[in-house]
Structure formats: structure tokens, C-alpha cells
Amino acid sequence: xxxxxxxxxxxxxxxxxxxxxxxxxxxxxxxxxxxxxxxxxxxxxxxxxxxxxxxxxxxxxxxxxxxxxxxxxxxxxxxxxxxxxxxxxxxxxxxxxxxxxxxxxxxxxxxxxxxxxxxxxxxxxxxxxxxxxxxxxxxxxxxxxxxxxxxxxxxxxxxxxxxxxxxxxxxxxxxxxxxxxxxxxxxxxxxxxxxxxxxxxxxxxxxxxxxxxxxxxxxxxxxxxxxxxxxxxxxxxxxxxxxxxxxxxxxxxxxxxxxxxxxxxxxxxxxxxxxxxxxxxxxxxxxxxxxxxxxxxxxxxxxxxxxxxxxxxxxxxxxxxxxxxxxxxxxxxxxxxxxxxxxxxxxxxxxxxxxxxxxxxxxxxxxxxxxxxxxxxxxxxxxxxxxxxxxxxxxxxxxxxxxxxxxxxxxxxxxxxxxxxxxxxxxxxxxxxxxxxxxxxxxxxxxxxxxxxxxxxxxxxxxxxxxxxxxxxxxxxxxxxxxxxxxxxxxxxxxxxxxxxxxxxxxxxxxxxxxxxxxxxxxxxxxxxxxxxxxxxxxxxxxxxxxxxxxxxxxxxxxxxxxxxxxxxxxxxxxxxxxxxxxxxxxxxxxxxxxxxxxxxxxxxxxxxxxxxxxxxxxxxxxxxxxxxxxxxxxxxxxxxxxxxxxxxxxxxxxxxxxxxxxxxxxxxxxxxxxxxxxxxxxxxxxxxxxxxxxxxxxxxxxxxxxxxxxxxxxxxxxxxxxxxxxxxxxxxxxxxxxxxxxxxxxxxxxxxxxxxxxxxxxxxxxxxxxxxxxxxxxxxxxxxxxxxxx
Length: 791
Description:
alpha+beta, 15-stranded mixed β-sheet, seven-stranded mixed β-sheet
């Protein structure tokens, strides 16, 4: 029986070549898009699946009631204290990333990008397969202990069996000879925890002591700079521990603590940490939902196309089905045959879809702003989902046709009372309208998203964005004041300064300050640490008072400049000369966009940055002299023996990075629009061909009776234009609702107007008219004698 179904399917494919080509092409596009998005979704949803105890692993999150936010930072001492006081905690450790570490390879030192300082419990909390090791319980006991990943071990020693060997390094600017206590396998790409090497957690203490100007950061409950992870005996105990944590905080911090600790399961870390500050290596659940929706829509479109074309050719297949029924074929067998044909056609699209996937998945990765990899742990998931989706599309696409053909009246069909084309015209129109609604919605959304992206790039933020160079420097490296003076002496440099974070600022440093008139009410004010001439270099406008000046020695230790919004929110009248949180207010600047345009302008204060916190030099130069400035920086770096390479960006580049997600979304929607266009227009083109062929005699009679070619083409085009207008009218409010909701995420946004939707209908009408015209012209110009010679 299967063999007969297969032969029948091949006959249908051979007989209706155009039908097969259009459907296979549309399905190939839909499947390739869905496969790419599935690859992304599976990778995102499977994050941390390599950690065997992930259900029982939790990180501690710090919630601050004053700021109403949560952050990942916790005290060093927290891990050990939790382990001592809560029997439910089986293992606990803290870790912190170390950015300043180099290891010696032959005669040179190489930078190690991803180093984590932690304790031995890390190996029981996370699944880190050890290849070679000393005693597992004492891998990180000594300060000079180090473990390397297999990749790093092979890079340095050309083999991994190196346990017990020594390696020279520089960590936090301190020379150290490390002893290699273990080598571990590289963790999978879908793990949040993928260090190149591990060192003892004590290396972070001196660093934090220096930053906080204290001697015992590892014993302080106020230095919240480490990540804390715990392993519970049973994940059901998490709620019990959370209930006890308020009392725990009171014991160790104060009677009226402003902070509380909460637990977050490792399973929730990757996709549910968007509201937790200082969290690294996270995904975006909104993107997963969005891309899944796009894939579903495109698959739906391909399915609609299949149904549309299948019902069209079903009129010519009705006699074939009637004869099969007369010869004893049951309704169930007829349905199985049609399902089998649908699955075969879909399976024909599968290898083409996989080829398109292999060609374009790297480009898709850049759009999704992630590494789109085939992860070995997920191979069977890929196969299962790819094949499953293909079969589901094949079966569901054949449902309507199977039901429709299997229920036809055999006697009427064999009496040559074949199914009227007009009898199902409502269904065809409905399917075409559904396709065009999707197409029009994508066009409108792509217009709006692109305009919002351009708005982000072109809106004046209130500071200089042209002819500004941002040069990254090493914190704690040296005193940069003489370097800035040397840079300013060049004739093509207008001004120069330094800062802790540049504009547009991507970090948040804030504190709570009481209002002036109502001390019980506090205002959250963000801070920015800058150098002399920063305000002038960036073109910020002083409205009252003055900027920081080297002529006033006290400016470096007790002066602040506020923005308009800070003055307003604090309720200060005549602010210059008044006190602000122990500082003297020396000036007020005009409001400007501190962050991306997603958020409103916050209350802000400027203070002078200590030299050890400098991370960027800001240079304003005369137009068309960027290359000269870069050459000058290289000379100054060499002259002052600065080891770090010259690393610079323009503000335009920083701004482009800031809005990269909107740019990517624009491209994704444009590609989705193109795919829906191709699939819809192929379906419409195929439908026009079949309808025109079925009306050859009608067209021939009209031409004999005096109808012009123009009037015949007009009939074809006019009907489809009406369908476009109906589709556009339905798609417009849908698009408006979706885009209005999306724009609601931004403080600064474009205004939605009717032109977005009117232009969509016009564009769709032009495309549909051209598509229909191509074949209707052939039908209208055909010789009527050929159509009527057998009558």
C-alpha cells in the first residue's frame, strides 16, 4: 500500500510541476527560517543543561529597598556564613572575574580573557569535568594554585598532562609563579560558566581592599563585589531559606537593613535576569518569543500557500478521486493518500531547507547578536525538532485537501458535474487575504522599526557627538594628567579630558539623597566621575555657576555640578553654593541624555574622578583630523611606555553599538517581510496561472465578443487590488497595536501616523498588481482560436 501511495505521489508531482515547484520553494524558505530560529531557541533554552545539579544550584541576589532594584553582587563572607548557619546548604562558594592576569608562554606573557577567582566548592556546584587533577578537595587551597581549561593548556604546553608543573604569571600587577593543580574540559557553549582558568579567590581581596580603601574586604558585609552560589540538599528547601534570610541579614548587617537576600535557581539565571544588575552572560526571553512568532508566521504562510494551491488543482483531480472511490477506495484510504502526497512534497523541501540553513546561519547569528552554533549536546534535539516540524507541516497542510476531496459526491463528478471554481472562491479569497494581512503587517512594522532606529541615531543628545575620540586606558596604570596636557598641546586638538565612564553612559552609579524641603523623601541621583575640562570637551552647557577648574584646589575633593533635573527633583532654590551630600554645588548644567534614549534624563551629579578610577580619555579635535589624533596618541603611548595597546572609539561607533539590537531587529523584520513577500507572491502567481488556465474559454469568448486585452487584465488585477485593500485595512490596526506597544518601551520615540499604513497598502498593491499582471497578460494576449477550436 505504501508503495502505491508513493507512486501516486510521484505521478502528482510529475503532472503538476509548477504546483510542486512553488510549494517546495515556499516550504524550503519557511523551513530554513524556522530551522535557523529553532537552532537559536534550542540553544537558548538549553543553557546550563550540562550542569547536572542545576535544579539544586542557586545564586544569592541582593535586593535594595532604597533603590528598588536587585543586583548580583554579594559580600565575600556570605558564602561561608550561609554554609555554617544553614544545614540545607551543602556547598557554597563565591567567585569574581579577574581582568588583569597574564601567563608566560615561552618568552612572552599572554592575556587571559576569562579568569575566575573562586574556591574548591565550585567543582561540586557546577559540573566541571576534570581531565587531570591533584586532590579534588584541595585544588584551590593555596594562593598560587591554578587550573587551566584543556584549550588553554594545549595552547601553552601543547599537552594537558601538566599537573604539578609551574607557570609564571602576572596577576593584578603582581608577579606570581603558579602551580598547576588541575586541567578541566572546556565547558559547552551553552553554559554561563566557561572560564579559561581558575585561581584562588584570595586574589580578589587585595584588589577590592584597594578600591574600597579598607584592609578587610573579605570580612566586610558592605563590600558587595562577589557572586555567591550555593548547592542545596533539595531545591524545595529554597523557600525555607528565603523565609529565614531577613533574620539572617539583621544578625549580620543591622537591625533595620536596607537590603535583603533572595535566591535564584541556576535554571532561571540565563533567561530571567534582565532586572538583576551586574549579571553577565544572559539571554533574552523576549527575543525567543519574538523569533518564534516570526518562524510560526512564516510556516503558517507556507501552509496557507499549500492549501491555496492544493484546492485550486483539486478541481482537476476530482475525477481521479471519484474513480478511485468507484474502484473501492475508502474515504480513509483517500485521506491517507493525500496526506502521503503532502508529506512527500514537504520532505522534498527538507534538504533544500538544510542547505539554506548551512549557507545563512552565520549571517543569522550576527542578526540575533549571538553565536549560532551546533552544540554537540543538542544534536538529537536538532534532529528531532527539524524532522518533527517538517512532518507536522506536511500533515497539517494536507488536512483541508484530504477532507475536501474525500467527501466529494462521486455520482455528480462522474456525470461531469465537476466542482465549480466559483463554489470555493470565498475560501481562496480568505486564504489570499490571510497571506496579504501577514505581508502588510510585516511591511508596516519594518517601516516603523527602521524609523525608530534612525530616530535614535539622529536625535541630538545634548552633547558633542562629532569629532570626539574615546580612548580606553588601564585603571590603576598611571597618572594620565601629563599625557592629557601633552595631547592638548597639539594644534588639531581642541580639548581633552578623562572620565570613569564616557557618554552615552552604559553603567549606573547612583545614591539616595534626601529632598531639601522634605527630608523624609529620598531621591535617587546618578553620578558621573569626570576630569577637568570634561564638560567643555563634551559641549555641555553651564546654566548657572561654573565648571570644575584647576584654579580651585578644593574642586577635586568636595565640589559637584548638578543637572537641571537633579535641582528640580531635590527642590533646591538657588543651588550654587549650597551643600549636596557633603559636597559644595558649584554649577548647574543643562539636561542631556546621559544614557540611551530608552530612558528619561535622570537626576545627575558630576564629581571629580580619582586618578585610579580613570578608564577613558576624551579628545575633541578639529574636523578631518582623526588620523592625526590617532598618530599622536600612538606617539604619546610609546613616549610614556604605556604597555596597553591604543584602543579607541568614536561616539558614533559607541552609539551604533548602543542601538545594535534595534538595527538587528530592523534587519530581521525586513528579511521576514522579504520571505513573506516571496511565499505570498509565488502562491498568488501560481493561483493566477491556474485560474487563467481554467478560464481560457471564457477569455476566448470575451475576446471574440470584442473585449480588449486591457479590460481582461483589468479584471484580474482589480479583484486582487480589492483584496489588498481589505488586507491592509485589517493589518493596519493590528500593526498599530503591536508597534504602539513596542514603542512604549522607549522614553523617546517617533509618532505613529496614517502614512505608515497607507504607504504599506500602496506598496503591496504595486507588488500584487505586477505579480498578477505578468501571467494575466499572457492569458489576455493568447489566441482565442486555440481556446475555442474544440467547441
